[in-house]
Amino acid sequence: MLNIDLEGKVALVTGGNSGLGEASVKALSNCGAKVAICHLPSQAESANLVLDQLERASDEAICVPVDISSYGSVREMYDTIDKTFQRVDVLVNNAGIDGPRKELVDADISKWEEVIKVNLFGATYCAKEALLRMKKQSSGIIINMTSVHEYIAWSGYSAYTASKAALSMLTKTLAQEAGRYHVRVIAVAPGAIKTPINKDVWSQPSSLSDLDEKILLGRPGEPEEIGNVIAFLASPLASYITGTTLVVDGGMLDYPAFVHGG
Ligand code: BGC
Questions:
Q1: pTM for this one?
Q2: Does residue 58 register a pLDDT over 90?
């Protein structure tokens, strides 16, 4: 029987206190990994709630506050992880924001920059520090959470789409750089998954039915459907996957509008 076994591995998940990060933390922990639930300093409460739900010994999971848009804060986060676990096997670069929905002509440029700073700079800082450690270990996996919006344009969210497309190319380039020291770098591109980031859309019947029509399977995904994929990719079962994006979107990218007519 195939088994996702992450026993003895140390996984770090940014934005691990909610949404896809929370689902990733739970899946990785269920498969035996030790986990660092990295969260914004203001979100310690929800991070601790996630920690309490894990069926692991208390020394096998920790919460670590971090503002990933600051390289100094990222380095402090890694100091804590070094002291606690002495290694990093899996980095899930999950933390991200979408920013206010505004066309660029009307956008507040500092809000636009903030999205890039968190989604792209933040993921880059976390990846750099992970690679330093993984290179020494000669092993490791970095998983960057992108989105179908690394491919699909989205009016009002130019910073978000640009950050996700950039993260996709960062993934491919880092995979080239890290392959020779046996580190895999992969992007996961979720479609519409029921998380707090899009709750205003999936929680209301009218916008939910509009959303369902954009998906071949006719429904948004559950966070666990991404968490399971993260655990698989982090495991030896995915040992030959690197430098690519795995789309997990219920068929959102496959032109659902063409099911009828065209
Ligand atoms: C966004 C969600 C959106 C989904 C599909 C994700 O990247 O965060 O808000 O529902 O893409 O459009």
A1: 0.98
A2: no
